[in-house]
Design brief:
By secondary structure, this protein is an alpha+beta fold. The chain contains 3 helices and 3 strands, in the order βαββαα. A hairpin with a 4-residue loop joins strand 2 and strand 3.
Length: 84
């Protein structure tokens, strides 16, 4: 699962992100707003390409790089091996 969390003041932004990508779900919480993307194909085909096209700056770019590696490991089913 890929989750984006924002403070409640940015709920409209989070809903717009789900609408723009045509995937995911919006889940209001008591102190924050959350968008969850649980369908693997959406993560692989929509989320990652979006963030590669519109790059993230700073430390979060390292998180994206790690996330992309994990997605590739799962896509190749390497996570099901003893080493994975």
């Amino acid at each position: 699962m890929f989750s984006i969390t924002q403070y409640s003041r940015d709920a409209c932004l989070l809903r717009s992100f789900c609408d723009l990508l045509g995937c995911g779900g919006y889940y209001p919480r008591s102190n924050r707003e959350e968008g969850n993307f649980t369908k693997f194909s959406d993560i692989e085909e929509k989320i990652i390409p979006f963030f590669k096209k519109y790059s993230i700056n700073g430390v979060k770019s390292l998180d994206l790089s790690d996330f992309c590696k994990v997605v590739e490991i799962i896509r190749m089913k390497e996570h099901l091996t003893r080493v994975g």
